[in-house]
Design goal:
The chain is of the alpha/beta class and 207 residues long. The protein has two domains: 134 residues, Response regulator (Rossmann fold, 3-Layer(aba) Sandwich); 55 residues, Arc Repressor Mutant, subunit A, CATH 1.10.10. Helix content is 46%, strand content 14%. The protein has nine helices and six strands; from the N terminus they run βαβαββαβαβααααα. Strands 2-1-3-4-5-6 form a six-stranded parallel sheet, with helices on both faces. Strand 1, helix 1 and strand 2 form a beta-alpha-beta unit. The longest helix is centred in the C-terminal third of the chain and has 14 residues. The protein starts with a strand and ends in a 6-residue tail after the last helix. The relative contact order is 0.13.
Length: 207
């Protein structure tokens, strides 16, 4: 039985993703959410095999933050010129589809990634060029992190642990962990120390 989680801010898109899951054999929908902060908590609780996720271009989501909790990811991301699709591919998504993908296409992509394949929709082919180029770049720029991630990075620079950061920002420790994972992914950092160093180097935080 394949355990599946679904995330989309839009209720309409979320319903479409759920319908795609219903069309697959031997699957069980174990989590559904429209809130990014809730996604981290549900993934940790349910540990799904597959995540179907809508990644709007303005959400600034780094999929590397959730990959340890969902080994296979099918992402609906913006067109080949948007950051959303590149981030999804660099974050480790196994399938990249346009937001306009049909339920049948989503279901087919989900079945394929569960079989160990990688799926890239023809309209997303241009993503490969940008993503390949981005691998060799230092992606830490002031526009890379969200405002909240910037706050978390600043507190990481002060040496605060996740629990202390959660207390300072009045958010859950689960949410802090999600933001830390996102920061590490966006800054191509292997550790908190490396992320802080990268943040200082690129002017994202000051001392």
């Amino acid at each position: 039985m394949i355990r599946v989680a679904v995330h989309a801010r839009s209720a309409l898109i979320r319903a479409g993703l759920e319908r795609a899951v219903e069309g697959l054999a031997d699957t069980l929908l174990v989590a559904r959410t429209g809130e990014l902060e809730e996604l981290d908590r549900q993934l940790e609780e349910t540990r799904p095999d597959l995540l179907l996720i809508d990644v709007p271009a303005d959400e600034g989501l780094s999929l590397s933050a959730v990959l340890t909790l969902a080994p296979a990811v099918v992402a609906l991301a913006g067109g080949p010129t948007t950051m959303g699709a590149e981030r999804a591919l660099l974050g480790g998504a196994k399938a990249i589809l346009p937001p306009s993908a049909s339920i049948e296409e989503i279901a087919a992509a989900a079945a394929s990634v569960c079989a160990g394949l990688i799926v890239l929709h023809p309209t997303q082919a241009g993503v490969l060029t940008g993503a390949t180029r981005a691998v060799g770049d230092a992606v830490a720029t002031s526009g890379t992190l969200t405002a909240r991630e910037g706050e978390v990075l600043g507190l990481m620079a002060e040496g605060l642990a996740n629990k202390s950061i959660a207390r300072r920002l009045h958010i859950s420790e689960h949410t802090v962990k999600f933001h830390v994972g996102s920061i590490l992914g966006k800054l191509n950092a292997e550790s908190r120390t490396e992320a802080v160093a990268e943040g200082l180097r690129n002017g994202l935080i000051t001392v």
